[in-house]
From TrEMBL:
Necessary cofactors: pyridoxal 5'-phosphate
UniProt-listed Pfam families: Cys_Met_Meta_PP (PF01053)
GO terms (BP aspect): cysteine biosynthetic process via cystathionine; transsulfuration
InterPro entries, per the entry: Cys/Met-Metab_PyrdxlP-dep_enz, Cys_met_metab_PP, PyrdxlP-dep_Trfase, PyrdxlP-dep_Trfase_major, PyrdxlP-dep_Trfase_small
Organism: Taibaiella soli
Protein name in the entry: Cystathionine gamma-synthase
UniProtKB keywords: Pyridoxal phosphate
Residues the record lists as N6-(pyridoxal phosphate)lysine modifications: K199
Cellular compartments per GO CC: cytoplasm
A GO molecular function held by the record: pyridoxal phosphate binding
Stated family: Belongs to the trans-sulfuration enzymes family.
PANTHER family: CYSTATHIONINE GAMMA-LYASE (PTHR11808:SF15), TRANS-SULFURATION ENZYME FAMILY MEMBER (PTHR11808)
Length: 383
């Protein structure tokens, strides 16, 4: 989608056209399974709704535009999008994956695709050059999540892209945590951007949805073939919710970032808090890379307590009132979570600890409520 407009304009207008029959300014929810043909093969570009749906088309075009890509493809969830990308692989292929990543991604790789003879290397990419140590003749793909979940490590996308290009590997970047407002991986040389639109893109905790964005036409064709053949497509109503959500992405993200900064600073100064992890801190190990590839630092924060035991952490989780105890992130409301027992419970404890994900780590998805109320809530919960 070549579009000269700036992001804030594209978030609202890209992909969206007044409905040709009524002029409706909002893309209708085309709740249909099929389309009537005038004669066999004589149709308006829409044959069957697994293959094409106009509400989905509008969203796919919008997502492509806001990620500075040519093509967008939507799926029934972020995991369905991950599944589609993994289906580009064949038995014997190897993938190099950042080792601190979404628990569900770890699970689908190790419990589903490993059964099909695909090998995954989960490695520390805080120095992207480490990727080189795992490349061999079978390597086909590099999978990066940045910022990582939940330790908020930052991986240098440009460096990972350079290594991937040298070895003709596909670079996939899960951009869910940053959102297109903060980071556009295709601009740094990634081949595929993945989103769980369930998070910041949808933004209102009311939809599960996934997306892929890319520039290469042949890659798009392969992934569109998988999208249609495997059928993990989103319904039109869910596409419509994401289309509605992205119209305010820039406004929401601005507040997520402002609130995130203030809360990160508050936690860091709190006498009972141990370590506060937020990529906006200048002493974050990869802050310089975050500054290079992100426009701001977001509202995802993790912290531990000085009283570093699981019960002290669970006590805080029980006491917050505005921060709701829930999995997920990126909605307008603030959430608090405990990765070890919630989002990352599918990773074995020894693997978790080896990666620095301690049992007392608490993760915040800072929402867009009033900052004073949010800080007050943390104050009474931490004590
Ligand atoms: C939530 C999430 C996913 C999975 O997306 P779903 O929409 O829940 O299937 C993948 N990656 C990251 C970083 C996520 O946060």
């Amino acid at each position: 989608m070549a579009d000269k407009h700036k992001l804030a304009t594209r978030l609202i207008h890209a992909g969206v056209h007044p409905d040709p029959t009524t002029g409706a300014i909002m893309t209708p929810i085309y709740q249909t399974s099929t389309y009537v043909q005038a004669a066999p093969g004589d149709h308006k570009g829409y044959e069957y709704a697994r293959t094409q749906n106009p509400t989905r088309t509008a969203l796919q075009d919008a997502l492509a535009s806001i990620e500075n890509g040519q093509y967008g493809l939507c799926f029934g969830s972020g995991m369905a999008a991950t599944d589609a990308v993994a289906k580009l692989l064949q038995p014997g292929d190897e993938v190099i994956v950042s080792n601190d990543l979404y628990g569900g991604t770890y699970r689908i790789f190790t419990k589903v695709f490993a059964n099909y003879g695909i090998k995954f290397h989960f490695i520390d990419m805080s120095d992207a050059q480490n990727i080189r140590n795992y490349i061999n003749g079978n390597t086909k793909m590099v999978w990066v999540e940045t910022p990582t979940n939940p330790l908020l490590n930052i991986i240098d996308i440009e460096a990972a892209a350079k290594i991937s290009k040298e070895h003709k590997l596909l670079l996939v970047v899960d951009n869910t945590f940053a959102s297109p407002y903060l980071q556009n991986p295709l601009d740094f040389g990634a081949d595929i951007v993945l989103h769980s639109a369930t998070k910041y893109l949808g933004g209102h905790s009311d939809v599960v949805h996934g997306a892929l964005i890319m520039n290469d036409a042949a890659l798009e064709e392969k992934l569109r073939f998988i999208q249609n053949s495997c059928g993990a497509v989103p319904g039109p109503h869910d596409c419509w919710l994401v289309l509605r959500g992205i119209k305010t992405l820039h406004v929401r993200m601005q507040r997520h970032c402002e609130n995130g900064k203030k809360i990160a600073e508050y936690l860091r100064s709190h006498p009972k808090v141990g370590k506060t992890i937020w990529c906006g801190f200048e002493d974050h190990p990869n802050h310089a890379i975050a500054k290079k590839q992100m426009r701001d630092f977001g509202g995802m924060i993790s912290f531990t307590l000085k009283d570093d035991n699981i019960n002290a952490a669970l006590e805080v989780l029980k006491k917050t009132k505005l921060f709701s105890l829930a999995e997920s992130l990126g909605g307008v409301e603030s959430l608090i979570g405990h990765p070890a027992t919630m989002t990352h419970a599918s990773i074995p404890q020894e693997d978790r600890i080896a990666r620095g994900l301690s049992d007392s780590l608490i993760r915040l998805s800072v929402g867009i409520e009033d900052i004073d109320d949010l800080i007050e809530d943390l104050k009474q919960a931490i004590g």
